[in-house]
Design a protein that fits this description.
Blueprint: E1 5-9, E2 21-27, E3 41-45, H1 50-55, H2 87-101, E4 107-111, H3 124-133, H4 137-158, E5 162-166, H5 174-178, H6 182-185, E6 191-196, H7 205-217, E7 222-227, H8 235-245, E8 251-255, H9 259-268
Parallel strand pairs: 1-2, 1-8, 2-3, 3-4, 4-5, 5-6, 6-7, 7-8
Helix pairs in contact: 2-4
């Protein structure tokens, strides 16, 4: 038997009974912005923003492999991604973070905090800034991401709310690929969330490998977000996935996007 925290990600901006905490997007990767949701963890998608990419295509992250958009089929992007060095866009994000942190919420969580991949971004902004820093490519990217997270953290903590960020599911090369440097980021966050989605979870050894990798690199609380929507994994597979990684994490977040589904799944998780 074991006891870990169980959270839920839903589409409704209100707490779900039976969970240790509830999370909901105040700004999703679609670009839509909602009003802050009271008494829950409010999520802000930072550089993933389809709406802004449509309106300001010159802000989209670039590389020799093409723009970081869903239309770039060879790269498999799930949403359009803005260059992390667009000052006007970062100001908008920080203003939203400030507004949200003033509301009656439990905390702010940032997703899409980094670069789209190892070859991004090579727009003129990034070329010039990279040259000015006189850093190598990887250090320049990680400094860009950490500096933004640091500014966001200061705003949130001044308003006495919890602050956390997403990490993409690569505990070994996240700094190189996305600019996500765990030792630098953990100075500014209360906890990390790593989304590891699968539609079945029929095999789970890879979940354990990833959870172990992140656990070895940070002492901050670590949460793994598992896909639990409908259609999705069978209940027994989801439970097996939770058991497999429970030794390495402080909590699990079920991405159900549906409060009623969430309640039913939680009811069946009698060992948590």
């Amino acid at each position: 038997m074991f006891k870990i925290k169980i959270g839920v990600l839903t589409d409704k901006p209100q707490p779900v009974e039976g969970f240790d905490f509830t999370s909901n997007y105040v700004k999703s990767c679609t670009g839509k912005v909602n009003e802050p949701a009271s008494n829950i963890l409010n999520i802000i998608s930072c550089f993933g923003d389809n709406r802004t990419a449509r309106k300001r295509p010159e802000w989209i992250a670039q590389s020799k492999d093409g723009p970081a958009t869903r239309a770039n089929k060879g790269q498999g992007f799930l949403w359009d991604q803005i260059c992390p060095n667009v000052k006007e866009y970062k100001t908008t994000l920080l203003n939203l973070i400030h507004k949200t942190s003033k509301a009656q919420i439990t905390g702010i969580h940032l997703s899409c905090i980094g670069f789209p991949g190892p070859k991004y971004c090579t727009c003129e902004r990034c070329k010039n800034l990279h040259k000015e820093t006189q850093m190598d490519w990887i250090q320049y990217k990680s400094k860009t991401v950490t500096d933004f997270v640091s500014k966001a953290s200061k705003i949130v903590k001044e308003n006495k709310k919890t602050f956390s960020v997403n990490l993409l599911p690569d505990p070994y090369f996240g700094k190189e690929r996305y600019g996500e440097d765990l030792p630098s980021l953990e100075k500014h966050v209360d906890f990390f969330i790593v989304p590891i989605y699968d539609l079945a979870y029929q095999t789970t050894y890879w979940l354990k490998t990833l959870a172990y990798g992140f656990r070895k690199q940070t002492k901050k609380p670590l949460y793994i977000e598992l896909y639990a929507a409908n259609p999705g994994p069978k209940q027994k597979n989801l439970q097996a996935a939770i058991v497999k990684i429970s030794k390495y994490v402080d909590g699990i977040i079920l991405a159900t996007h549906d409060s009623e589904i969430a309640k039913q799944i939680r009811k069946n998780l009698t060992f948590c």
